[in-house]
Amino acid sequence: MQVTMTITAVRSAVRQARQQGKTIGFVPTMGALHRGHLSLVEAAARQCDFIVVSIFVNPTQFGPSDDFNKYPRPIEQDLAICTEHGVDLVFAPSPQEMYGDEVLTWVDVERLTGPLCGSFRPGHFRGVTTVCAKLFNIVLPDVAFFGQKDAQQAVVIRRMVRDLNMPLEIVVCPTVREPDGLAMSSRNQYLTAEQRGQAGTICLALEHAEDQIRRGVRDADTVAAAVIGILRQVPGIEIQYVSLVDAESLQPVDPVSGKVLIAVAVRIGSTRLIDNIVVDAH
Amino acid sequence: MQVTMTITAVRSAVRQARQQGKTIGFVPTMGALHRGHLSLVEAAARQCDFIVVSIFVNPTQFGPSDDFNKYPRPIEQDLAICTEHGVDLVFAPSPQEMYGDEVLTWVDVERLTGPLCGSFRPGHFRGVTTVCAKLFNIVLPDVAFFGQKDAQQAVVIRRMVRDLNMPLEIVVCPTVREPDGLAMSSRNQYLTAEQRGQAGTICLALEHAEDQIRRGVRDADTVAAAVIGILRQVPGIEIQYVSLVDAESLQPVDPVSGKVLIAVAVRIGSTRLIDNIVVDAH
């Protein structure tokens, strides 16, 4: 496995792989790799010949009060995991390599970045779309893989790729969960043992919502209220949003119909956790 | 020469050219081709094997009071010119092919789009950068060619390409001028015979400014005032700006030093004309 911090080396390695007739699969990450990331690497390995993983804690997607400084960076462990899982190339650039002295150019997706996490993390998605545009232009993959856990991110990236005619396919892989249902996240390690015990409630609440819809409940507020009721059983939980939105347009749906994204963001202590489930309400 | 209105056909033709080992040169235009455009096609032919010209009057770079509807669209004549000059592929998409029903994603370059034309044409450069990002992703050229006549556009596009790590080179070619010095522009055809006679004054004013700097004048206001004085000899001229800025940062320079862009925008009647000259003030 090749590891590089430079854009030039990535371009050169990918060019060489492509000259050998290989297709390029790309998994952009912020490191602190868990089984969620690995499911993306495995999907990439099934679909592509040459697997590139980027590890970059992207400063432009963190707000001033976000956890940029404390975000975990276990680079040696991440590299070992990538080696074990047959990754061909890891790109782990410095912020300087990615952004130089100053960023003047931004890629912005309107409307889809407004609701859900967008209203709690101003500028977050602009940072995500900009860094993904850069990474796509550096790696030039045939396919890039994202997790459904970050549902809004996946919708926004898909739209960016479509709107800007970027020459790659976006594949979104299912959320990988702990045995109690907690969605895999690098931020789970911030949780105390007690908080970790409580965090499984998020998934339970989403499953309850899915169950309600399957049983025929179509009033969005009723479903949301039930989710909120379950989440409130966690002491000290702060609910940022519980939203039922169209899974593509991210606009509120009420009554519930079509493919509905039920998305939740909470804080448990100082840790922000998000999760979601998509239900087909036909 | 192949002519197509579809993105799919462009991708396929370019892929085929690339498989034959050809390098791809790209000249994005809004049509109404003149000798300025042809100098770009000729530069592309010198540097690249397969020449793509796009002809697209891009609605997103026109403001509500701009000349989008009346902008000339002599497509048959343009195609004849391209055929004569050895263009391999003309991409002439409809707005629907380029933008579908709705644009949500924009590429924005900060600061560089603020001064000069940016302050008179709000949203213009966002439209330019977005359509260029799209066209670059569709054509995937090795080199794209722009004219120095649109100096701010060239600086903005270069910066976008650099900031977003777009995998292509930008070449900026010298302004091509009429015998009396008027910079070639598709908008020159809006001018009445009388206005056309007067429009040569713009270039004379810029040459005077260059002359002043070469003779040692370093006070930017003195140079600008002289340019304004000459331009005002044109009856009914409306001067939008006469600016002396650093040729890369586009920030005002006073006293004049380094590579200085002297940029002018005026209206003669209802026709907006821009021109510029770069002077090395060492």
Main sheet characteristics of chain A: 6 strands, parallel
The CATH class of the largest domain in chain A turns out to be: Alpha Beta
**How many structural units, i.e. domains of chain A?**
2
User: Helix content range of the residues of chain A, please?
Assistant: 25-40%
Which oligomerization state do the chains in this entry correspond to?
homodimer
The run of helices and strands of chain A is EHEHEHEHEHHEHEHHEEE
CATH architecture assignment name of the largest domain in chain A: 3-Layer(aba) Sandwich
Largest interface, counted by CB within 8 Å of the partner chain's CB = A-B, 26 and 26 residues
Our count of helices of chain A gives 9
User: What name goes with the CATH superfamily of the largest domain in chain A?
Assistant: HUPs
Radius of gyration of chain A: 19 Å
Give the arrangement of secondary structure elements.
The structure is a homodimer of 282-residue chains.
Chain A: E1 2-4, H1 7-19, E2 24-29, H2 35-47, E3 50-55, H3 75-84, E4 89-91, H4 95-99, E5 105-109, H5 117-120, H6 124-139, E6 143-147, H7 151-163, E7 169-173, H8 193-214, H9 220-231, E8 237-246, E9 258-268, E10 271-281
Parallel strand pairs in A: 1-4, 2-3, 2-6, 3-4, 6-7
Antiparallel strand pairs in A: 8-9, 9-10
Tag the structure with descriptive keywords.
homodimer, 282 residues, alpha/beta, Rossmann fold, Pantoate--beta-alanine Ligase, Chain: A,domain 2, 2 domains, three-stranded antiparallel sheet, 9 helices, globular
Could you characterize the architecture of this molecule?
- Chain A has 282 residues and is an alpha/beta fold.
- The first copy, chain A, has 2 domains: 2-173, 3-Layer(aba) Sandwich (Rossmann fold); 186-277, Pantoate--beta-alanine Ligase, Chain: A,domain 2.
- In chain A, 38% of the residues lie in helices and 23% in strands.
- Chain A contains 9 helices and 10 strands.
- Chain A has helices at residues 7-19, 35-47, 75-84, 95-99, 117-120, 124-139, 151-163, 193-214, 220-231; strands spanning 2-4, 24-29, 50-55, 89-91, 105-109, 143-147, 169-173, 237-246, 258-268, 271-281.
- The first copy, chain A, has a 6-stranded parallel beta sheet, sandwiched between helices. A 3-stranded antiparallel beta sheet of chain A has the order 8-9-10, covered by helices on one side.
- In chain A, helix 7 links the parallel strand 6 and strand 7.
- In chain A, helix 6 crosses helix 7 and helix 8 packs antiparallel against helix 9.
- Chain A is globular, with a radius of gyration of 19 Å.
- Chain A starts with a strand and ends with a strand.
- The relative contact order of chain A is 0.13.
- The model of chain A has no long low-confidence stretch (mean pLDDT 97).
- The A-B interface holds A 7, 11, 103-112, 129-130, 133-134, 137-138, 140, 159-160, 163-167 and B 7, 11, 103-112, 129-130, 133-134, 137-138, 140, 159-160, 163-167.
- Strand 5 of chain A pairs antiparallel with strand 5 of chain B, so a sheet runs across the interface.
